[in-house]
Amino acid sequence: MIPKTAIEKEISALSASLKPVTAQMNCWAEQHIFLKWAVLSRGKFHCLECAHSWKPDSESQSCQKYIACTACKGRLKMHQYNQVHFKEIEYFAVTDACQGYQVVRIICSHKNMKKNFLPDYSHTEVMQHWINPKGEVRTTSRSTNVFSQAYDAWKYYSPLEIRPKDFQNSPKYRINPYKVYPNLKVIALLKRNGFKTSLHGIAPQILFTALLKDPIAETLLKSSQKSLLSHYLNFHEQHLRENWQAVKTCLKNRYKIQDIKIWEDYIALLRWFKKDLGSPALVCPENLDEAHDRLVAKKRDIQRKKHLANMRAEIQQAEPIYKQDKKQFLGLSFTDKDLTVKVLDRVQDFLHEGDTLHHCVFTNEYFKKKDSLILSAQIENRPIETIELSLSKMEIIQCRGLRNKATKHHSRILRIINKNLPEIAKRLKKPKKQTAIA
Questions:
Q1: What does DSSP assign to residue 429?
Q2: Which residues, 6 or more positions from 77, have their beta carbon under 8 angstroms from its beta carbon?
Q3: Domain around 414
Q4: Alpha-carbon distance 93 to 110, whole Å?
Q5: Last residue within a domain, chosen from 180, 198, 222
């Protein structure tokens, strides 16, 4: 993108004037951002760090995830597959200050490994984030291969070019380097707003931007709420803003939140019950899990009562319709020793059947199906299976027990129903009207 505005032209000129990433920085990255690897090939361990090879002391040693090199003493991670070439890619960052801008330089590093050879490294600066004192950020970056499935398939030969303002919405902008070069150079305003040396696992460009323009991020950092700050900056900004009154209560009482997601759910419950979010006794419980579970149970009881009230109203409306539709079948039952199969006479029975056997005969409103007759197989007045019968085809559609599973009585139930299908069909036939004789 060709720089057009005064700011874009300024950043492009300043970017060209920056000193290149030094060999010392690259050497530091080679030692700190990559894992050390080993591979088992033809009965020998090969250290891909120092090119040493040796035979394992025992067969069990070859099954370990990590192993120590007998030459360089490095702790090596075992490669799962034996191949000719091995490659690892990592990012590291260098911070800089230039003409009032805070600059975050992102370097993509490659480590190429081969058995019996020392590793080869390459480093390319792929992005620069330029952040002004107001927290506004513009990025220069290299181009990427648009046909690749990876969003960071860099074209290393392309130049660093200014990107549009909406580049912050790109996943490339949120790349979090594995490590940041320890000799940090930051503008004075960041130090004033609470930044010292640690990034707390947050991408530097995201942390610096937030500290320069967002008082909430500054407050959380100065209050040593590191986990809450990380949660806030990782796509949960809106949630924390909604709970800011409760957060301030935690900050005043120096309360450390152990599980942020559980705490947010707990605060949502307090809000549902219209509780005071400024009360330390409520917002800062000693045992968060117990307090959360207690409110969940309380809310569930209230919802269950409301749901039961709604169901009662629904049952009362559906009852006369169901009795009219199935009046010829009501009271019909078949018995075989201890097993009874009978038609469900009331809509209330559908609710009891569904609750007992944990299926959807009531939830999915089977009592409204015109072509279906619903029967219950019971032993000692306790439902064991529910049967749906097609009235038009006179065949069993389904027969299900607890949690939709068949019981040991399943075959016996099917046999009883099939035996009595004629009796059901007889009730289905409407009596013919007698014509008067003239």
A1: S
A2: 35, 36, 37, 38, 65, 66
A3: 326-428
A4: 14
A5: 180
